[in-house]
Amino acid sequence: MIGKKGPDPFFVGMRIVSVNVGLPREIEWGDKRVLTSIFKAPVASRVAVRKHNLDGDRQSDLTVHGGPDKAVYGYPSEHYAYWRGELPDADLGWGAFGENLTTQGLDDAELSIGDIVRAGSSLLMVTQPRIPCYKLAARFGRADMVKRFAAARRPGFYFSVVEEGELGVGDAIEVVDRATDRMSLRDLFDVFFATTPDFDVMRRALALRGLAEVWRTELAAILAKAERAGA
Predict the structure, then answer these.
(1) 52, 79, 40, 36: which is closest to 185 by C-alpha?
(2) Distance in angstroms between the alpha carbons of the first and the last residue of the chain
(3) Is pLDDT at 14 greater than 80 in this prediction?
(4) Model confidence pLDDT, tens digit, residues 66-78
(5) What is the pLDDT of residues 94-140, one digit of tens each?
(6) Could you tell me which residues are beta bridge partners of residue 33?
(7) Which strands make up the sheet holding 173-177, listed edge to edge?
(8) Is residue 159 within 8 Å of 126, Cβ to Cβ?
(9) Which ranges in the chain belong to alpha helices (H)?
(10) CB–CB of 98/73 below 8 Å?
(11) Residue 215: closest CA among 206, 223, 207, 224
(12) If DSSP codes are grouped into helix, strand and coil, which group holds residue 118?
């Protein structure tokens, strides 16, 4: 049963700062035209949370975005101060990083894979950090944006939907069930970008509840290959 386990010192004053949605659009990037849904705009009305997305939102390429493990993307409002320093000329309104929920009080250095939060009347489970792709570069018009995002170590968090509901700006967010086996979004993000693979951390990651299936498959394949090689 999911229930509150007492006050958590890491997550205080949590709320939704902005709800952002968007539909696919075609843009030019380099010599190509690409379809992307990274452009999100804030909405004032309450929004229904579905198993695969928010109402009014849709992903463009379901092979790498969306689906049950990446139904909702959240990004801390606190990270925007860092990016305003890094990108002083960029348009950094809420939703700039393609997030559905701009949050206050959720920290991707503390929030763990498998943690469950209540946002509005919906229940969401943390599944993976955001790994940047070229569409982030296209959104900002900067070829170096993927490298910058990786170096910043501020990935945000993807959620699966445990219980559908609705949410809106100003709604409280509450961590209602902390995973027993823990790994922060930032630590898992570092696994992806590590120059030398840490097999022990990968094994720990495979034991986490709620880990996105694409991560589980990839990590299992890496570990199987390493074991065959005697690593």
Answers:
(1) 79
(2) 40
(3) yes
(4) 789 999 999 999 9
(5) 999 999 999 999 999 999 999 999 999 999 999 999 999 999 999 99
(6) 28
(7) 41-42, 15-21, 101-104, 72-76, 157-163, 122-128, 116-119, 173-177
(8) yes
(9) 79-86, 134-140, 145-152, 185-193, 199-206, 213-228
(10) yes
(11) 206
(12) strand
The class level of CATH for 15-228 reads: mainly beta
pLDDT digits (tens, 9 = 90+) for 206-231: 999 999 999 999 999 999 998 888 76
Count of alpha carbons within 13 angstroms of residue 143, beta-carbon side:
1
Give CA–CA dist 159/150, Å, rounded: 20
Query: What is the distance between the alpha carbons of residues 176 and 210, in angstroms, rounded to a whole number?
Result: 15
Q: How many residues does the chain have?
A: 231
Do residues 136 and 39 lie in contact, with contact meaning Cβ atoms separated by under 8 Å? Answer: no
What residue segments make up the domains of the chain, in order of their start?
15-228
Closest listed residue to residue 191, CA positions, set 213, 206, 210, 209 = 206
SS3 25: strand
